[in-house]
Amino acid sequence: MAGPLSKNLQGCTLTVCQGDLTRQTVDAIVNAANSSLMGGGGVDGAIHKAGGPAILEECLQIRKTQGGCAAGEAVITSGGRLAAQYVIHTVGPIWRGGGNNEAKILTNAYRNSLQLAVDYGLKTVAFPSISTGAYGYPVEEAAKVALSAVLDFLRRRSENPPQNSESNLSEVRFVLFDPHTLNTYKSELESL
Ligand code: AR6
Q1: Does residue 121 have a pLDDT over 90?
Q2: What is the CATH number of the domain that holds 111?
Q3: Is residue 41 part of a domain?
Q4: Looking at per-residue confidence, does 165 or 94 come out higher?
């Protein structure tokens, strides 16, 4: 397995590595969910399988109160049996050629996930490559959007520091499943 790459940006360590998101010991992992919040395949299926039924029960409660989760939005549940304390469920865009607001929606998915993490006082968050599996977003373009969205979020926070310095992120990690996705995110991180 190829090695990880880390960079310190805006006081936060940004890491890209290859691995299984469900096995990360971080405060929260982010799920590439769908709007129903009812589970699915890919990383979503793996998270529900590894975390157990408590996660789906909480998702069902969220559905009752707000009727699911729109693309670009994010919600949070506990991590069930996972090592991560929380799962942040976000919904990326389905790729429809790039002219349908896909980049904006993908940016929002990362931004809203990070905002939920800091609202909960979390310090370490791990993401998958949202939308580049079943949703068909080209990896090269998604990697650019993902890393710029994270960097932009960190920059805005360092320009407008929160009152409570405890709530600063210390690590944002991308955990990528296959070597091609890893290498694409690595090149993108190198160029930041
Ligand atoms: N750890 C890290 N990455 C993973 C893992 C894992 N355990 N499993 C898969 N990936 P996808 P999407 C990678 O399809 O494109 C679901 O059915 C995978 O190789 O999981 O946002 C949802 O319910 C790919 O690189 O998410 C939605 O309906 C990346 O995670 C829909 O798929 C994202 O692939 C969402 O599609």
Answers
A1: yes
A2: 3.40.220.10
A3: yes
A4: 94
**Which residues are part of the catalytic machinery?**
44
Asked, for residue 5, whether it belongs to a domain, the answer is no
Q: Which of 43, 63, 95, 141 best tests ligand 1's pocket when mutated (most atoms within 8 Å of CB)?
A: 43
Residue 95 counted as domain residue? yes
- Please give the Cα distance from 129 to 97 (Å, whole number): 18
Residues 6+ apart with CB under 8 A from 57: none
What pLDDT shows up at residue 164?
67
- Cα four-point dihedral sign 109, 6, 190, 183: negative
Helix 42-51 and helix 53-66, axial crossing angle in degrees, nearest 10: 120
| Number of domains the chain contains | 1
Instruction: Name the residue with the closest Cα to ligand 1, atom 34.
Output: 133
35-53: average pLDDT? 98
Does residue 137 belong to any structural domain of this protein? Answer: yes
The residue segments making up the domain with residue 111 are 13-190
Tokens of 158: 């360092």
- Say whether 146 sits in a helix, a strand or coil: helix
If you measure from the C-alpha of residue 148 to the centroid of ligand 1, how many angstroms do you get, rounded to a whole number?
Answer: 20
Q: What percent of the chain clears pLDDT 70, i.e. is strictly above it?
A: 97
The verdict on the CB of residue 27 being under 6 Å from ligand 1 is no
